[in-house]
Amino acid sequence: MKPLLRLTNVTKRFGGLIAVNEVSFSADEGGITGIIGPNGAGKTTLFNLLTGNYAPDGGDILFRDVSLVGRKPHEIVALGVARTFQSIRLFSSMSVLENALAGRHCRMRAGLLSSMFGSAAQRREERAAVERAVRELEFTGLAEFLNDKAGSLSYGNRRLLEIARALASDPILIALDEPAGSMNQPETEVLVRLIRAVRDRGISVMLIEHDMGLVMQVCEKLIVLEYGIKIAEGSPAEIRGNPRVIEAYLGQD
Amino acid sequence: MLKRSGTTSGTILQRVKFPALVALTALAAGLPLTLNPYWTAVFVSIGLGALLSLSLNVILGRAGIFNMGHAAFYAVGAYVTAILNTRFQVPVLWLLPVAGAASGLCALLVARPIIHLRGDYLLIVTVGIVEIVRIALINDVGGLTGGANGIFGIARPEIFGIRIRRDIQFYYLVWGAVALTVALFSRLDRSRVGRALSCIKEDDTAAEGCGIDVARYKLLAFGLGAFWAGMAGALFAAKMTIISPGSFTFWDSVLLFAAVTLGGGSQTGAVLGAFLVFGLPEIFRDFASARMLVFGLALMAMMVVRPQGLLPPALRRYDTRFITRGERAAGDGE
Predict the structure, then answer these.
(1) Burial (0-12, 13-18, 19+ Cβ within 10 Å), A100
(2) What is the domain-level CATH number for residue A218?
(3) Is A226 contained in some domain?
(4) Which of A115, A144, A176 to mutate to test the interface with B (most CBs of B within 10 A)?
């Protein structure tokens, strides 16, 4: 299969610390790729490099043969890479519907004047955006909360709303940073089905996760990081039996 | 399974809103007929304050950018109007968009390098801007601004052959402009642009992360707010016929900042804030010396009791009735 995303020798330093060290891997179009590793392994840093929040000190990140290096986060979203945040970052005083609409922003065109004077094209676009946002809320199971404040949702639902917001931007790849964090077992089961449904829509998924049950269940490919270095790559079955991975997680005898 | 929530309450709200709006308009239109000339003049200056407060509300109230130098843009609009009118006899009302554009352009130029600064850092720079503008005006830059004395003899505006001269005429002109501004800004608020500003105010990292060009929209808010302040400046110049640097001080910027903060970010809040900040001191003229003390105490009390302001913007609601519901959520069990 053609790789959707290809990282070559990506490096990020913070002062003397090398958070991500010469990491190379590729992710397939239409696949579910997991990034795992102990705390402080550089997983979230890698995500921030992918989404443009950090600029790498070396290496290249190609998304469908277009380099993402040096682009701003909003440009990367427009190219088709949407993300969720590990520490949930919703617009909590805005409604659930508006949070989903915020994700739609980059696919809309209305500018200052057409917004102030309400042109016909602007109204059409607005209507279509509301409909799409509602569809994504239905997809993630949040439709009954449309007009509630995002801040009033349960933690599990807030994570789902972040996914709905990301989906509203028509992503090609969706990057989920610990989507099961602070979720209970039934919520995690809903999430697993949701992630598969996202993939079935043809959207590639990349996720960071600590919940090994979830990772082994949904991911088709895993990348294992430790101290910023990629120590293993392969299918869940291969990773489970890899001695280096076991050592990284459980420590040496 | 899915509830259809919140589709009726919006219409109820609208049903109440419309007659209220009609009543308010009638009241505002009839008011000057009952007022003596002094109070009419007071209401004109409150109206100008409301225009400025609405313009700062775009920047501070909606986008959350700490701008404490708004008087600088008001000054640019007033001076551009005064200079072009007294030297080239350009009619004042034609100069409205010119004054707005000049202010907006100035704002974009000075804001471009500082827009990425956060909160209080940006605030300090904007304080610097308003001082630089005031001092430049006093120093008679380019021999255009008339130094500390300012500029005299600005013409009165003329609409359809009627020369606006009396306070009661200015009352209708200024408050008409306020009504138009509220209408336009309310539409903006409910649009893609308005939502982007709200997102930025709440969490700019998240806004950028979900595809909003944060720097661009911050500049847009700054430019629009300054454009409007410039137009208010043009009206001010036409009303006063004399302008001098003393009308555009840091203190005026602080008052505007207080008006918007008290208001809480909504359009009605911004107008209410203007009433409190520019109107109340007139009612309590006798206690003028204690004015600032009361102001300070009021702001402190607000921060403790109601930090979100008196009238924070209501949750935007959208008509979703046209969407046929019922698709099953992807995460539902078999």
Answers:
(1) buried
(2) 3.40.50.300
(3) yes
(4) A115
